[in-house]
Amino acid sequence: MSKDALRAEARAVLRALPPAERGAAEARIARRVWEVPEVAGARTLLVYASLPEEVGTDAIAAEARRRGITLLYPRCLPQGRMALHAVDAPGALRQGRFGIREPDADACPARGVRDVDAALIPGLAWDRAGHRLGRGAGYYDRLLAHPDWRGFRCGLFFAAQETPSVPHEPWDVRLDAVVTESEVIR
Question: Is 98 left (phi over 0), alpha (psi -120 to 50) or beta?
């Protein structure tokens, strides 16, 4: 199956998730992510501001703040690049490119990829080999392939987003772990 066909299929699966089931699954993922030692032990955690179809991260971010973990959020730049910024409070996020909440670049200090201990990564589909299918613009693959990247890469997905095999290219960066509502896959 092509990446475009798999994206269409994954979006249909996500649209079909009943809201109550989705909410319960997100709550389980928000608890289960702390079972990953690299996430629980991170001093600095890269987290995404979720779009409606993605696993929500607000509860995870709140727990990370409670634990004293510094949160970084990405900001999309031209040419498929991302800038990372430390965000102290959800109110520092503004509507940015592609309708994604992003850090206010003037209010949130910029940080580098070397600062990331662990990262929570979204996507449309995943497989057990650690491949993920993103939206197709390559933002996360470019970020995770940065030569200075050292952080642990953890995907957050609903179990229903699993597919037997995600088509991948040499430049697609694999995840170190996937957290779903039912398990942690390493």
Answer: left
User: CA-to-CA distance for 174 and 185, rounded, in angstroms?
Assistant: 13
> What average pLDDT does the segment 2-20 reach?
95
What is the CATH T-level fold of the domain 3-185, as seen in this structure? Rossmann fold (3.40.50)
Torsion angle of C-alpha atoms 39, 47, 160, 164, degrees rounded to 10: -70
Other Cβ atoms within 10 Å of 50 Cβ, number: 19
d(CA 137, CA 42): 28
**Other beta carbons less than 10 A from residue 88's beta carbon:** 12
pLDDT 10s digits, 72-130: 999 999 888 999 999 998 889 999 878 899 999 999 999 999 999 999 999 999 999 99
**Which structure tokens are listed for 16?**
């079909």
Q: What is the pTM of this model?
A: 0.95
Distance CA 79, CA 185 (A): 32
Q: What is the pLDDT of residue 170?
A: 87
Task: Give tens-digit pLDDT for 43-59.
Answer: 999 999 999 999 999 99
Domain boundaries, the chain: 3-185
Amino acid at 166: V
∠ CA 95-98-99, rounded to 5°: 35
pLDDT of the residue at 15: 95
